[in-house]
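User: Predict structure, ligand fe (ii) ion.
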Amino acid sequence: MRIPENVLKLLNEQFYNELYAAHIYFAMAAWFKRSPYQGFASWMQLQYKEEMEHAMKFYDYITERDEPFATAAVKKPEKDVFESPLDAFKAAYAHEQLVTSQITKIYDLANEEKDWVTVDFLSWFLKEQCEEEHNTRSFVRALEFAGDDKNLIFGVNHWAAKRAE
Ligand SMILES: [Fe+2]
Ligand SMILES: [Fe+2]
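Assistant: Predicted complex:
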């Protein structure tokens, strides 16, 4: 049972999209490491690992279905430096929304092609994206609420530090 070629192409691209997401979070973690906000730094680093796991899910799926894997370049993130924690989390939230649209596009195509195994595989990612959007949006809201109050921003940073995995 082969994966339709057009679906396979998007699945392979999504491996690199997930690596790109990981790369973004890696850059954000590095930026936060040089700031007073070590809680945000560790949150971003955990998020980086999670994106690598997402990438590997696509890799494993492609190879387990005995399909060829195509290498490609990982895009360079747009920013290495951010204006504020809010700026970084706004970028993270916007990026998660973009990833949701990427996953939805593959899901639509797999449905169209009646590739039900891929549809089933992708349903985990749709749920995961709800969580990813919720998490990043929550930090945007909290940081917007904190405004310029350093004590409140530090409180949000402590909340981020509580993330276990
Ligand atoms: Fe992801
Ligand atoms: Fe994500």
